[in-house]
Specification:
Length: 243
């Protein structure tokens, strides 16, 4: 009996190397590996994300620092570049410095510290026939009234004679137009009679919040020559008592 060279159905374990496809049989070690590999990938992704976040924060802080330094440098440059609001100590000296009396600030000021457009509007916003404001010699007696021209001349008088009074209504309009001047930014806000523009804005807000009768004469002012002899404007409310 001759033996056949081809496999028979009784030879089930003889593999055909060309046609047989092998499948991977997972062992317990393989299963553990497959369980841990994804965790390693998630951890790696988390580290990558955290790395990007840290770098982004560092860049943001660096940019913020540069911007802050730039703004500070600009402020210092502007302060150094713009002359002070100094008009000397007399009217004659003020005129030689191209200064003029600014009723909005109750002081002689040079051009770069004024906003003549705002001052002109302010001078026409009063209760007078043509919008004039009254400046009183006393807060108790309204018989004597100063004009704007007389207020300008008052700047070089002795301190005992360098005082005038105005109403709450005057003060509110002064605040309104001074804040507009500040927002417009066309004039240096160094001179307001206060340490800073912010302090003056806070003062105005508090004064207007009082909502006192507009006709009350409680505002004292002392015309001056800008930074050299700053005119003082202050609400007497809370300082000298209610009138």
């Amino acid at each position: 009996m001759a033996l056949s060279s081809s496999p028979s159905s009784s030879d089930p374990f003889i593999a055909n190397a060309e046609k047989h496809e092998y499948s991977k049989i997972n062992t317990s070690d393989d299963e553990e590996a497959e369980l841990y590999i994804p965790r390693a990938r998630k951890s790696s992704r988390l580290r990558t994300v955290l790395s990007y976040v840290v770098k982004l924060v560092i860049v943001a802080m660096a940019v913020y620092g540069l911007i802050t330094m730039g703004i500070s440098a600009v402020v210092r440059f502007r302060k150094a570049a713009v002359p002070p609001c100094n008009c000397g100590s007399s009217i004659a000296e003020a005129l030689t410095l191209d200064c003029k009396y600014d009723s909005l600030s109750t002081s002689w000021l040079p051009p770069h510290c004024r906003d003549d457009e705002m001052t002109s509007l302010f001078e026409k916003s009063g209760p007078g026939p043509n919008g004039e404001w009254n400046y009183y010699a006393s807060n108790l007696n309204t018989s004597k009234v100063f004009t704007v021209e007389e207020m300008a001349l008052m700047a070089e008088k002795p301190d005992s004679e360098r005082q005038a009074w105005a109403t709450i209504e005057w003060h509110d309009k002064h605040c309104f137009f001074t804040l507009l001047k500040q927002v417009r930014g066309r004039a240096k806000m160094q001179y307001t009679g206060f340490p800073s523009g912010t302090a003056h804005a806070e003062h105005c807000a508090m004064g207007m919040a009082e909502r006192r009768p507009g006709k009350q004469i409680v505002v004292s002012m002392n015309p001056g020559f800008g930074d050299a002899n700053p005119g003082e404007l202050k609400m007497m409310i809370g300082h000298m008592g209610h009138q």
